[in-house]
UniProtKB/TrEMBL annotation, chain A:
PANTHER family: DNA REPLICATION COMPLEX GINS PROTEIN PSF3. Residues 5-55 form the DNA replication complex GINS protein PSF3 N-terminal domain. Pfam families: PSF3_N, Sld5. It comes from the Eukaryota. This is GINS subunit domain-containing protein. It comes from Rubroshorea leprosula. One of its GO terms (biological process) is mitotic DNA replication initiation. Residues 69-165 form the GINS subunit domain.
UniProtKB/TrEMBL annotation, chain B:
Component of the GINS complex. GO terms for biological process: DNA replication; double-strand break repair via break-induced replication. This is DNA replication complex GINS protein PSF2. CDD domains: GINS_A_psf2, GINS_B_Psf2. SUPFAM superfamilies: GINS helical bundle-like, PriA/YqbF domain. Residues 14-71 form the DNA replication complex GINS protein PSF2 N-terminal domain. It comes from Rubroshorea leprosula. Residues 76-169 form the GINS subunit domain. Keywords: DNA replication, Nucleus.
C-alpha cells in the first residue's frame, strides 16, 4: 500500500485533473497566462490531484473526470484493452483511477479499471514469461508503471532461475580481495 | 537469509532455495569406515563400508566430493517413474503430479556432483528437464485464469516453481485486490464531504470472487 514517501504515490498525485472553481480566489497564480492574480468563480483550470483534492474537501472546486478516463479511451479499452497505449495517457493509470474515483463519484471508472487490468494482466503475463528479451521493448512502451513492475518482476525471476540452472561459479570473490595494494610512496 | 540478496527481485534467490534443499535426506553408501560425525544439525554415522546411511544432501555431496561414498539416487529419480510422471503431466491439464518439493534442486545437485551414481543419467536428465518445462508452462496457463481476488490453490507445486512466480503473483494479486475493492483504499475514509458520499453509500461488495 502507498506510504507517505512512496515516489510512485507522489507522482500519481502530480497528474492534472480538470476542475471548476465554485468560489473566486484572490492572490493565487494558478494559471500563469492569466492577467490578474485571481481565479474567478466558474473558471475551468487543470490542477494537480493533490491540490484539487484539498480544494475539493473545502468545497472550493468540483472535479470532473480527467482526460485519460474520457469516452474515447473507454471505447478503446473496451475494443482491445491490451493494445491501448496507457503509458502515454497516464503512466499511473490504475492508481490515479483509484484516487480520482471517490472525488468524481463515477462508479463506471471502477469497472473500467478492473476490466482493463484483467485483460492487460493476461497480456503482460504471456509476454513476460514467453517473449524473448529482445522483443520486449515494444511491449514495454504500452504498459503503465504498475504493469511494468509486474513485467519486470516476472522477467527477472525467470532470468535468475535460468542463470542458476546454467550454473557457473558457485562462490563469488569478495570485492575486498580483488583490490590491489596501494603503492607505498 | 531471505531478502539478503536483492530485495526487489524475489524473496529468495535460486541459490538460497538450493541451500534449503540441501537439508533433504538422501541415502549414501560409504566406501570406507568413518567415525560418528557431530554437527549442529545432528549426528550422523558411524559409517561402515557398504551399509546404507541416511544423511542430508549437503553432507552427501561433501563426502562424495572427497570420494568417500556413493550417493543412491532417490526412488522417484528412476527412468520408469519419471516417464510415468511426464506422461501424466502431459495428460492432465490442470493438476500437477506429486514430486518432491525440491525436485529441481536435488536433481541438479546430483547431476553436478554424483553423475556416475545415477543410471541412465542422460535420459534421467532430459526427462526431468521435460517435466520441469511442462510444469512451468502449466503454471503460466493457470496464472492466466486469474480474474479478481480469490484464494489461489495450486497443489504439488515445487519450491523452485513457487520461487519463480512469487514476485509476479504477489504483485498481481495485490493489484487485483486493489481494483476489486476500491472502497478499501485507506484514503477514502478521509473523504467525507460532497459527491463522495454517493460513492460510499452503496453496500460493500463481496470481497471474494470466483
Amino acid at each position: 500500500m502507498a506510504s507517505y514517501y512512496d515516489i510512485d504515490d507522489i507522482l500519481t498525485e502530480e497528474e492534472l485533473v480538470p476542475v471548476v472553481f465554485h468560489k473566486a480566489a484572490n492572490g493565487v497564480i494558478i494559471d500563469p497566462s492569466s492577467e490578474t492574480n485571481s481565479v474567478e468563480q466558474g473558471a475551468k483550470v487543470e490542477l494537480p490531484l493533490w491540490l484539487a483534492q484539498e480544494l475539493h474537501w473545502r468545497q472550493a472546486v468540483s472535479i470532473s473526470a480527467p482526460p485519460c478516463f474520457n469516452q474515447k479511451t473507454r471505447l478503446e479499452i473496451q475494443a482491445d484493452a491490451a493494445c491501448v497505449d496507457l503509458r502515454s495517457r497516464c503512466p499511473y493509470f490504475y492508481e490515479f483511477g483509484c484516487k480520482i474515483l471517490p472525488l468524481v463519484g463515477d462508479k463506471t471508472i471502477e469497472i473500467l479499471l478492473l476490466s482493463a487490468f484483467k485483460i492487460r494482466y493476461k497480456e503482460t503475463l504471456t509476454k513476460a514469461y514467453t517473449a524473448a528479451y529482445t522483443a520486449t521493448s515494444k511491449v514495454l512502451t504500452l504498459l503503465t508503471r504498475e504493469e511494468t513492475n509486474l513485467y519486470e518482476a516476472a522477467q527477472s525471476s525467470m532470468a535468475a532461475f535460468k542463470k542458476w540452472r546454467m550454473g557457473g561459479p558457485r562462490l563469488q570473490r569478495a570485492s575486498v580481495l580483488g583490490r590491489k595494494r596501494k603503492p607505498v610512496n | 537469509m531471505a531478502g539478503q540478496s536483492d530485495p526487489h527481485v524475489s524473496l529468495f534467490s535460486a541459490e538460497e532455495v538450493e541451500f534449503i534443499a540441501e537439508d533433504e535426506m538422501v541415502e549414501i553408501v560409504p566406501n570406507m569406515t568413518i567415525e560418528r560425525l557431530n554437527f549442529i544439525s545432528g549426528d550422523f554415522g558411524p559409517f561402515l563400508p557398504l551399509t546404507v546411511n541416511q544423511v542430508p544432501l549437503w553432507l552427501a555431496v561433501a563426502l562424495k566430493k572427497r570420494g568417500k561414498c556413493a550417493i543412491r539416487p532417490p526412488h522417484w529419480m528412476s527412468v520408469e517413474n519419471l516417464t510415468k510422471v511426464l506422461e501424466e503431466e502431459r495428460d492432465s491439464q490442470g493438476a500437477f503430479q506429486a514430486l518432491p518439493f525440491h525436485y529441481v534442486e536435488i536433481s541438479r545437485l546430483l547431476f553436478d556432483h554424483a553423475r556416475e551414481d545415477i543410471p541412465d543419467i542422460y535420459l534421467v536428465r532430459s526427462l526431468i528437464e521435460d517435466i520441469r518445462d511442462v510444469r512451468l508452462h502449466k503454471v503460466e496457463t493457470s496464472l492466466e485464469k486469474f480474474s479478481g481476488t480469490s484464494a489461489v490453490k495450486i497443489p504439488n507445486l515445487s519450491a523452485m516453481e513457487v520461487n519463480i512466480i512469487r514476485p509476479f503473483v504477489g504483485r498481481a494479486l495485490q493489484a487485483f485486490y486493489k481494483h476489486d475493492n476500491p472502497e478499501k483504499i485507506p484514503d477514502i475514509d478521509r473523504v467525507s464531504s460532497g459527491q463522495s458520499r454517493v460513492a460510499n453509500s452503496e453496500p460493500p461488495r463481496r470481497p471474494l470472487r470466483r
